[in-house]
Design a protein that fits this description.
Helix content: under 10%
Distance between the termini: 15 Å
Number of strands: 17
Strand order of the largest sheet: 1-9-3-6-5
Number of domains: 2
Number of helices: 2
């Protein structure tokens, strides 16, 4: 709970808001107490600077973008922003058992993946179309202007990528991001109520259709298509709750035997 915005404020209240135990020893120069108002060690401080201070890391939505390139250029961001990327790879092969994996871009962290769906064969060359799906995230640094998509194994013929990126800005420049409640089912009630801080929920669908809906939100909902022998679609969407008491949100997708799905949430502290 944020500290009072006016009136009396004491060191013990600051200590508790920063995560300390009430009545235990603390000083105004403790790093966690200074951190509530982003003060440096030994800086001059006054108690009224803590009016309204909160340990909660809040989130605001910034921008989203799409890419059909192997090398993805990120939308405008600031260092410390959180990016979520949904990556679809599509290629074709004469085998329906080829090993095909979408890689996690260098420096990023995998949130969820569903590898892989296959459709076909198609008469011209008896080819099968393979689709892979992956969602990744990263706390961005100033140099993170691009990332490169890649796959491991086969197929490689006609290989192409479709990527959606969504950017969120936390109220701290050095957030901690924790992955939770990952599912590869076609529907999921994302258990965000288990978190005690702000959350970013994500969902993605790839395959013969990509329609999916949220019980609430989402903030972003972007879709791309790609065609080899058959149309392949991908949609990546996300929804955030900037509160210490987030609630569960349902998500569901059009079900198809060759679709792939992922969902989950990131807790931000």
């Amino acid at each position: 709970m944020p500290l009072p915005s006016s009136g009396q404020i004491d060191l013990n209240a600051m200590h508790v808001e920063a995560g300390g135990t009430t009545g235990t020893e603390a000083t105004i120069n403790d790093s966690d107490i200074r951190g509530l108002i982003s003060k440096a060690d030994g800086a001059q401080m006054a108690f009224n600077e803590w009016y309204g201070a909160s340990a909660l890391v809040t989130i605001t939505a910034q921008i989203s973008g799409t890419s059909t390139s192997t090398t993805v250029t990120l939308p405008t961001f600031s260092a410390g922003d959180i990016a979520i990327a949904t990556i679809q790879a599509v290629a074709e092969d004469s085998s329906n058992t080829a090993s095909f994996t979408v890689n996690t871009p260098s420096g990023w962290t995998q949130a969820a993946a569903s590898q892989r769906s296959v459709v076909g064969p198609y008469t011209k060359g008896t080819l099968f179309v393979h689709t892979g799906l992956k969602v990744c995230y990263k706390v961005l640094t100033a140099g993170d202007t691009t990332f490169t998509n890649s796959t491991t194994g086969t197929p490689t013929a006609g290989l192409g990528f479709r990527t959606t990126v969504q950017i969120y800005r936390p109220s701290t420049s050095s957030p901690t991001v924790t992955l939770n409640d990952v599912s590869t089912a076609s529907s999921n009630t994302i258990n965000a109520s288990a978190a005690s801080s702000s959350v970013i929920m994500f969902a993605a669908t790839a395959g013969s259709s990509s329609t999916h809906t949220w019980g609430s939100g989402p903030t972003y909902n972007t879709e791309l298509s790609q065609t080899l022998r058959v149309a392949r679609y991908v949609r990546g969407s996300s929804h955030f709750q900037s509160t210490a008491t987030p609630s569960d949100v349902s998500w569901s997708s059009t079900t198809s035997s060759d679709n792939r799905y992922v969902s989950g949430y990131l807790e931000v502290t």
